[in-house]
Please model this.
Amino acid sequence: MKTKNLLMMFLLTSIFVFSQNKESSTRKFIDEAQFTRINKDWTTMASFKSGIGEYVRFFPIEVINLKSGEKTNALQVNMYIKKPDIYKTAWVGLEEINEFVTFIETHVIPNLDLEFRNKSSEFIFRANEMTLSYKVFNKDRRLTINLNSYDEEDELKNYTFWTETQVDKIPSLLKILKKIK
Model:
């Protein structure tokens, strides 16, 4: 039963991600600039790890177009997964951050201790380049993050990370998001 539910969750999440492969304003900003500088503070990060050594890291960045001097802030998401063995980066644009903060504050954090009996509930946030899902099934909780692929030669159109042991670290992600606002 649990395997069936996990398979169903994976399929539904994949459908959502496949149908929304849009670029963030940050990716467009970087692509349009001939010379770019990206400033990262590696001490300000929310990190989630799986039991098999995969991870997702969220941190604020400042992107500068070196020719025009124009600047923008964003959230960078770095993901490493083992199947396939790949490292991916996505961005959440500044215009998406307020909604992301509201989603976590309103729908995820109040439900971190949620439990059901023979029921489940899933909370899904879709940004242009990533999807974050928090699912509760009975007493089990799972955080899933999908990143879209923009490499035309990629057979996969999204990459998935999930963890059940790191769900309690979601408030650390909220702190990072609030530094970008």
